[in-house]
Amino acid sequence: MSQSYFDWTTLHEIAHAIDDKKGFMKARGATAPYGGWAEYGSNVAPVAQAAAAHFNFSTPAALKYIKGLLEGAANSRPSDKPAAPPGRADWNVVRQNVETWVDSIRVGKEPWANLPQDLGGRIYHEAYANSWVSYLKAARSQGIKGYQFRAPGEWFSELYAAYNSGVLKDSHPLVKNFLRDL
Ligand SMILES: [Zn+2]
Q1: How far does the centroid of ligand 1 lie from the alpha carbon of residue 128, in Å?
Q2: Using one digit for the tens of pLDDT, what is the confidence trace for 3-15?
Q3: Assigned domain for 115 exists
Q4: Are 48 and 81 within one domain?
Q5: How far is the CA of 182 from the centre of ligand 1 (A)?
Q6: d(CA 24, CA 162)
Q7: Ligand 1 centroid, distance to 64 Cα (angstroms)
């Protein structure tokens, strides 16, 4: 049956219902062919730990500072700046790099559309207010729309809408992977 008379938004909403009913992304979303998603909810600790390691800003006080940045209002700064360990002349510059990165991944910046810096091949961002995710940067090479990278459910729904409105060619790897078999 052709579904071409449904518009993109309708297809997108149909897809959310399919995803919920099948538990599709819940079962597959963490694996690489489906974006390699991790969902942290309001727990910023894994995001802070990844940043601490990536930026080399990883004293206990620095980790606490990154958590404070992630949990605070957008563009705000915790008042307690972590002290530089011995020999770290770069400390303040690194702290500013962390701050700039956190600013760029907040929900208001639409980081799914305005791609932030990755940390070791993963993109971390605030998908919804106080709800954090990450996914594999490499998944963007098979992307159709920036919005699909907001969250696992959006990834599924945008691809479903793209396929069922004829935007996605049969030769696209994700069509063979799952879209034609839904
Ligand atoms: Zn949606």
Answers
A1: 12
A2: 556 899 999 999 9
A3: yes
A4: yes
A5: 18
A6: 17
A7: 33
CA–centroid distance, 155 to ligand 1, in Å, is: 8
**Domain extent for 102:** 41-137
Residue 110: per-residue pLDDT: 98
pLDDT of 56-85, one tens digit each? 999 999 999 999 999 999 999 999 999 999
Distance 13 CA to ligand 1 centre (A): 6
State the distance from the centre of ligand 1 to the C-alpha of 66, rounded, in angstroms.
29
- Cα(114) to centroid of ligand 1, in Å? 18
CA of 20 to the centre of ligand 1 (A): 12
The residues of the chain scoring below 70 in pLDDT are 1-5
Q: Are residues 3 and 19 in the same domain?
A: yes
145 found inside a domain: no
The DSSP output letter for 87 is T
Q: Are residues 125 and 55 in the same domain?
A: yes
pLDDT score at 5: 62
Tell me, yes or no, whether 142 lies in a domain.
no
Number of domains in the chain: 2
Whole-angstrom distance, CA of residue 55 vs CA of residue 59: 11
